[in-house]
Known about the structure:
Strand content: 25-35%
Strand order of the largest sheet: 1-5-4-3-2-6-7
Shape: globular
Largest sheet: 7 strands, mixed, barrel
Distance between the termini: 11 Å
Helix content: 25-40%
Amino acid sequence: xxxxxxxxYNAFDTTKGVTGTVKYLGSPADVIELIRSGKLRDHILxxxxxxxxxxxxxxxxxxxxxxxxxxxPESHLGILSREFQTPxxxxxxxxxxxxxxxxxxxxxxxxxxxxxxxxxxxxxxDCSDDETGRVVAV
Length: 138
């Protein structure tokens, strides 16, 4: 069995499994740079929140998958991921860590830990469960 690196809310259930290298996008400039690189479809996009509106251009241009570190399936990215049928794991937490997102009380170290653990890793998003999305090591 493959190692589950992180779990979170599943934005929508799909049997569409996508594999790519995790790329953290912390700003609109990061999104533009990735789109211009021509390598958008090589990456699973990692962003801090479900309200990260600057990711919309990447979704419309064919992003293959999204991981958020906060937010719910009812948030901006949850809705857009369903519209574009892009697998999306939301409010992901590392399975090897006790740190969890708590609205208004989450230290920056929580997000830093997730970025450090996932960025550059090749993963598959498993969004086949009704509620739980999984980030699986390849």
